Amino acid sequence: MDHPRRLQVLQAIVEDYVHSREPVGSQALVERHRLGVSSATVRNDMGVLEDEGLIMAPHTSAGRIPTEKGYRAFVDRITSLKPLSAPERRAIRTLLEGAEDIDDVMERTVRLLSQLTHQVAVVQYPTVTVTTVRHVELVRMDEHQVLVVLIPTDGRVSQRVTRLPVAVSESDVLDARARVLALTTGRAVSEAVAAVTAAVLKVPQPERVVLAAVAEALQALGATSAEQRMVMAGTANLAQSTGDFARTIGPVLEALEEQVALLRLLSEMEQDERGIAVRIGAEDASDPLVETAVVATGYGPHDGAKLGVLGPTRMDYPSTMAAVRAVARYLSRVLQN
């Protein structure tokens, strides 16, 4: 549908309905928007939009509301995103740069994004498949135990105590530490594990025992880090939008709690040329998120993980898209430091 005025009418209906949650009539459109035509002409345009499935009349109301198809047409025609205000940008920078570790960064990110959009905010942890080893630390606990600490470039520290079959000295662990650092720093975790494993047979005992234990620990830590994890905030915002769901919000809350469906959805969403992915509704009526919209974008190296918001389809898409993109850019910057 490429009729300029009808697109303008659709945009006006979306904007008014998002703001008021009330069906929009032709007279209200003429009064609130500079459409340059009479209410009769607007009614005709609304009739065409309804025939095309872009708007609908709820119950017996004289007004109209957007359909999922209408929201989709509106979103697809957003050509530019309004930048956040200076205070908003300053708040993002101050909050994220004050984080202590990766967990703190993730928690602050979702709280901030939820406050900016008044929706449920979600963020995937960056996975180790798109990060490299920044540092590996070995700490001798006693003659039969060594603590292995993995610090990848995403800042997410993980550690594991491994037991050794033979006694080792402090100097044995220090020798192994120097070798492990040389073999792992700057490499992907899988590559680092392979390098340490290959070195096991090339060194004498008891360093060989330490290296074998380190390889096993790194493999376990890498597998744990590669598990998809996410953090969310703002689920209480859904309670303020119960009127936007024809059915109960129970299935939505259950899906958020289980996380599996949302993680799968985020991984499948593809960004458009604006660097944003928007899903409105769902083709499968049994999908627990069928009455929701999700706005997401990638962050970090190669956009390997996603952050975004989930809410009802009656969403302020331009502002939400701008907030999601801005927070993602700041998050990427913080993780690179």
Automatic annotation (TrEMBL):
SUPFAM superfamilies for this protein: GAF domain-like (SSF55781), Winged helix' DNA-binding domain (SSF46785)
Keywords, in A-Z order: Repressor, Stress response, Transcription, Transcription regulation
Reported function: Negative regulator of class I heat shock genes (grpE-dnaK-dnaJ and groELS operons). Prevents heat-shock induction of these operons.
GO MF terms held by the record: DNA binding
Protein name: Heat-inducible transcription repressor HrcA
Database matches in Pfam families: HrcA
Domain of life: Bacteria
BP term (GO), one: negative regulation of DNA-templated transcription
Heat-inducible transcription repressor HrcA C-terminal domain boundaries: 103-321
InterPro entries: GAF-like_dom_sf, HrcA, HrcA_C, WH-like_DNA-bd_sf, WH_DNA-bd_sf, WHTH_transcript_rep_HrcA_IDD
GN (gene name): hrcA
Transmembrane segments: none
Similarity-based family: Belongs to the HrcA family.
